[in-house]
Amino acid sequence: MSLRVLAVATITLVIAASARPIAHDIPNDVIVHAFLKPDGQRLHLLVRVPLEAMRDMDVPQRDRGYLDLTRVDDALRTAATVWIAREVALYEEDTRLGNLEIVAVRVSLPSDTSFRAYDTAVAHLRGPRLPESTDLYWEQGILDVWLEYAISSDTSRFAINPGLRPLGQRVTIALRLLTPDGRERAFELHDDPGIVRLDPRWHQAAARFVHSGFEHILGGIDHLLFLLCLVIPLRRVRMLVIVVTSFTVAHSVTLIAAAYNLGPGGLWFPPLVETLIATSIVYMSLENIVSASLAHRWLITFAFGLVHGFGFSFALRESLQFAGSHLLLSLVSFNVGVELGQLLVLAAIVPALNLLFRFVVAERLGTIILSVIVAHTAWHWMTERGARLLEFPLPALDAVLLLWLVRAAMVLVAVAAVVWVARVLLRRKAEGPGPAEAGRYVREQVGRSVRL
Amino acid sequence: MARRHLRVGALLVITLGVLAAADMLLQQAVDAQTNGGMVRAPRFEVDPLWPKPLPNHWVLGSTIGVWVDERDHVWIIHRSSATLSNNEKGLELKPPTGECCAGAPPVLEFDPNGNLVSSWGGPGQGYEWPQSNHGIFVDHQGNVWIGGNGAGDSHILKFTRSGKFIAQYGKAGVHRGPTNAEGLSTYAGNSNDRQNFGRVAKIFVDPRDNEAFIADGYLNKRVAVLDANTGMMKRYWGAYGNKPDDTNLGPYNPDAPPAQQFRNPVHCANLANDGLLYVCDRANDRIQVFQKDGKFVKEQFIARRSLGEGSVWDIAFSRDQQQTYIFLADGRNHKVRILRRDTLEELTAFGDGGRQPGLFYGVHSIATDSKGNLYTTETYEGKRIQKFIYRGIGNVPRTQGALWPRS
User: Fold this and answer.
1) Which of B141, B270, B109, B296 is nearest to B201 (CA)?
2) Cα–Cα distance between B200 and B147 in angstroms, integer?
3) How far apart are CA A116 and CA A277, in angstroms?
4) What is the DSSP pairing of strand A29-39 with strand A170-178?
5) Contact A168, A51 (CB under 8 A)
6) Whose CB among A263, B32, B242, B357 lies 3.0–4.6 Å from A258's, allowing a Cys bridge?
């Protein structure tokens, strides 16, 4: 064996011995930061991932197991390829982008803050590497990757399927899209969200939210019980249309208000709304049991609909990021989905109730039995949720609280005034005073003003 | 009909008028209140459900260190079984006396939701675990630093996040003196020792210069600065930047002229973004501010008539770029005080003695996360960590008591 062969074999052995495999447990929580920026005919994707999520890698190490930064580039590039570039799927106008280039890859300290903004992240990726003397363990480092894709136009609509689920037990992706007009849109994606349309067309957003609303109402047992209470004594189409429309209008108002951050943001608010939703079911059940007049049920339904709308908004909050530039449309679509779900439920309940009351039990007795069962369930919800609400101490009765109450009262009085004026005007228009009567009215008013 | 309309209309107008007048009067009252006893400062409320229960029937001992890393993971160090009475650790006794409990490992890492995600610590090969661990810090390279204030603790330790030993700086038990009447070793401080320490309370690593600032400590009376990679001591100083002197100063007297040396313990040394170092001179009831080279800048006394352990236990900075506020743990008075960092003026304080959420017993250490939330740990029989959720800047009274959820 020649000396040369021996030398090569020795060096290979040394390198192999120092490039030890990193094979740790799957981390519990992995947070990925990413920027996506279409620019001309290139789409830039910057990704920051903790290195502890990159497992089963051969990593060059030096004394004490620190990363050997003189030889780490290949391992980083392999990690970027295997764990990120191959997994992330990007789409331009529904066509998957394939032409990808790894522009830069580097390791960073865990304390590095350059991914707070796109420009500083780019500067960091272009900037000097860590000094070779840095003592850093693989599991404590950060991998920064810059990927570039060829695209047709930066004004296209893009979608992403992150595919980063294998990185950890729970994966959170904080993605920011920077559009050519300078806007920035933030997304928080969890685990495996599938294909996410970052700038959906109106019909895509609408379809998504109709589906979401439909699913929500069918899965929301308390909303369904409220609906059941409404229709037990009300099964004629005309009355149903009035009451359901009233509920729909009311919950749409508060749902949209909450989406535009017009609702209270306190920790006490969700338990309050949940308690009131349970209370609404108890109240409706009791009304059914005591056979109260149904003439004003639309009004009570409207009031409780306002509360249920806030309840819907809690469910919708996290998915509004998928609305793109169609926030209002998405909210309306969600309401449409809720309505479709309600109609489906009504279509099932009303005939079932009719059959029940016709063949099984007399209507009055059946109404009472069903309402008692519902009231019993809702009563437990109300007390459980109420207990959670009561964990929040009542606000102190001080000048600040009084001021808030006075201002709330002013708003209510103003609303009452507007409603009253509108009612008077509508009634007057409906009555349509005849010419003689109108003339007498005018004379009365003029005479009175003269006397005054 | 018209007469009725007029009456209703008049009633509405009058009601609105009365409400508007009430609004004006109340606004004046609120303004007066704001200008009087109120002050603008960060607002918090306690999160009574953080952290989540520990597994394995684990309980905390005296909890004497907290830090929040770059991922907003909260690290604490506590004294575990050494500070648990037998009726707290029945599971550990031989034979076990009950179904619960056992001391948790000394180092615990929680994720932002309060889940315990790792735990380690204790004696091991290649290093000397402190007799009484004290203070924890996670540096910019992700390494975990630990001090100790046990009788013979004259060293500090560095580990990886997963608890793998990296380095020990200083040796244990080097300042041993003669044995006392009970046959126990006594120890004397040596604040001019460049190789060892004297019961280190806290460590802070400056990422820019890769220097570790050591609050040294319960036996020594100095701030020491190390090269964070090698542990080599680069410089040290005492109060006002003086050469440290280990002479016993006797008990603190609030009416005496300010002591020219630190009293034990020197309990924190935290570096701000602008390069100013804030040192907790605990028993002297004061913060002293230095430049990184040890040049004295200014000092501020806090609750100056506090005797015994003193009022300035630990500090944390608010997370805005300017680090406008200092949060100060005052274990003597069972409060967290909020100061302006530029003037060191106290704006407000919250908490009081007690065991319910938001109250304290020996609030010892304090740290902030990137969202501005505050974490405190309690020593003695306090034995817990609490989280205070940041609720923005607003008008708050000068004294706030327990910050229970309100809004």
Assistant:
1) B270
2) 5
3) 41
4) parallel
5) no
6) A263
Q: Which residues does chain B have with pLDDT short of 50?
A: 407
Task: Quote ipTM for the complex.
Answer: 0.71
Encoded amino acid at B314, one letter = D
Neighbours of A376 (CB within 10 A): 11
Cβ distance of B71 and A134 shorter than 8 Å: no
Cβ-based contacts of B8 with chain A (< 8 Å): 420
Question: What 3-state class would DSSP assign to A215?
Answer: helix
**Nearest residue, CB atoms, A413 vs list B16, B229, B406:** B16
Interchain pair B111, A28: CB under 8 A: yes
Q: Which residue has the tokens 């306090």?
A: B382
Nearest CA in chain A to B28: A399
DSSP β-bridge partners for residue A275: none
Q: Say how many CB pairs under 8 Å bridge A and B.
A: 94
Which value, to the nearest 10 degrees, does the dihedral of the CA atoms of residues A209, A210, A211, A217 take?
100
Structure letter (DSSP) for residue A42: E
Distance from the Cα of residue B357 to its chain's centroid: 17
Q: What tens digit of pLDDT does each residue of B46-105 get?
A: 999 999 999 999 999 999 999 999 999 999 999 999 999 999 999 999 999 999 999 999
DSSP 8-state code for residue A290? H
Query: Taking a C-beta distance cutoff of 8 angstroms, is the pair B105, B121 a contact?
Result: yes
- Structure tokens given for B214: 């050591």
At A452, list the tokens: 């005054």
Close Cβ partners of A82 (under 8 Å, ≥ 6 residues apart) = A54
Q: Which of B315, B349, B274 is nearest to B42 (CA)?
A: B349
Q: Do B26 and A393 touch (CB under 8 A)?
A: no
- The percent of residues in chain B predicted with pLDDT above 90, rounded, is 83
Across the strands, what pairs with B288?
B279, B299
Q: Which of A50, A110, A407 sits opposite B23 (nearest CB)?
A: A407
Contact predicate A34/A136, CB 8 Å: no
Model pTM score: 0.69
Find the closest chain B residue to A409 by CA distance.
B19
Domain boundaries, chain A: 15-199, 204-390
- Would you give the distance in Å from CA A433 to the centre of its chain? 53
Give the minimum alpha-carbon distance from B312 to chain A in angstroms, rounded to a whole number. Answer: 28
Strands B296-301 and A19-22: what pairing?
unpaired
Helical (H) or strand (E) element with A104 = strand A100-108
Peptide bond into B258 cis (omega under 30): no
| Partner-chain contact A417 B12, CB within 8 Å | yes
